[in-house]
Amino acid sequence: MTRAVAADGLAARVDELASLRAQAGRRFFEDEAERIARLCHRMAERFARGGRLVALGASPQARSDVRHVAVEFVHPVIVGKRALPAIGLAGEGGGLRAQFDLVAEPDDIAIAFGGETFGDESAGGAVAAGDETAAALSLARERGCLTVGFGVSGAEWGFEPAVEDPFVRQELDETLYHVLWELVHVFFEHRGLLEGREARRTHDTGKSSFLYPFLGEQEQDLEAIVEDVRGSVLMKSSEATALRTQTLEDGRDGLLAAAAALRSAFENGGKLLALGNGGSATDAIDAVADFRSAPQGWQPRRALDLTEDASILTAIANDVGVEAIFGRQVIAYGRPGDALLALSTSGNSLNVIEALAEGRRGGLVTIAMIGYDGGRIAADGLADHVIVTRSEHIPRIQEAQASAYHVLRELVELSSAA
């Protein structure tokens, strides 16, 4: 059972968690930057040959990463980045090995996410998520796929941050796959560095020159490009660390107040509803998984993911409008005394704003985690508790928001008996 912590101790714990993340991020990316750069090159070769990214994960938390990495590659949020083929295979589709066997082709890239044991052990239904994922990864290697592993054994390119906190490990994994997605594009600009492609005599960096000046270098000089990409990995990871720290330090009071409100809701029989669009939808998946079955073994909490049911989402979007996809669910499932967690990188998404409005009308506690300057949600005070991540770079915003809701989850548990 988790021991309650006094209010001043909770504030200190937020600072401690911010420092832990900063130290772990610096250490991990300094150690792995060159390997990450070389992996970007290998992934670009696979995509150039027509390969796809196939993401794999069986645990509740891994499912959110599977969905997140797939949507980032298929629907790029940075102007000028090409869409790349990706698919996610998670536990709800059955055995991962069987699913992968039907989908995978030799030029594909398999990215696998490990996980904790989950399921009802008393009924004999517990599944070792890591073992299930490793089995699919083994098949991927047999088939000739490029294999990447996050906390799961058997991959050619394995990554596992040396930190005990499972939330911090997952956050660093998210930054890593965001960086892979951002920097794999560099190698598409250098045909001569991709297996089976011929170099061009001239190279026009065009509008990308101010972002990645090394795009204008000689295409045959792989080591020079790898070194520049390594530097870019370190730069991006440093930005991620700084934004996590800003979000947690500036949002400390908001997180403490939101945790107290959530604790009260749970102790009085209430539940949490979570929502978001795109990558923020996958964060809602993760937040709900953490409240229902935290890898630390904390008490399960009642939580619903309003992004989960595709039939409900598409029915409302088709027959009523996208703006209503969450608000109607808040009306259906929300009760006075419940809580609503809304995730948005802009703070301006109409369906998120409508859901918050319905939440307030229904007597729910409303919590919003948003980026940029907070958008309409912050400016108009549309949520009871607002945590702002002050950036305009969507991947970095999402990474910092993951830290925020992970810290919120811990604060709820630490203060549960206060």
What does this molecule look like?
With 418 residues, this protein is of the alpha/beta class. It has helices spanning 7-48, 60-74, 96-103, 129-143, 166-188, 222-250, 252-267, 279-292, 310-319, 327-333, 350-361, 375-379, 394-414, and strands at residues 53-57, 86-90, 109-113, 117-118, 127-128, 146-150, 157-159, 272-276, 303-305, 339-344, 365-370, 385-388. It folds into two domains: 11-239, Rossmann fold (3-Layer(aba) Sandwich), CATH 3.40.50; 251-414, Rossmann fold (3-Layer(aba) Sandwich). It has 13 helices and twelve strands. Helix 11 (350-361) links the parallel strand 10 and strand 11. Helix 1 packs antiparallel against helix 6 (222-250).
Brief descriptors of the model:
13 helices, five-stranded parallel β-sheet, globular, alpha/beta, 12% strand, Rossmann fold, 12 strands, single chain, 418 residues
SSE diagram, text form:
Layout: H1 7-48, E1 53-57, H2 60-74, E2 86-90, H3 96-103, E3 109-113, E4 117-118, E5 127-128, H4 129-143, E6 146-150, E7 157-159, H5 166-188, H6 222-250, H7 252-267, E8 272-276, H8 279-292, E9 303-305, H9 310-319, H10 327-333, E10 339-344, H11 350-361, E11 365-370, H12 375-379, E12 385-388, H13 394-414
Parallel strand pairs: 1-2, 1-3, 3-6, 6-7, 8-9, 8-10, 10-11, 11-12
Antiparallel strand pairs: 4-5
Helix pairs in contact: 1-5, 1-6, 1-13, 2-5, 2-8, 3-4, 5-6, 5-13, 6-7, 6-13, 7-13, 8-13, 10-11
Short description:
By secondary structure, the chain is an alpha/beta fold. Helix content is 52%, strand content 12%.
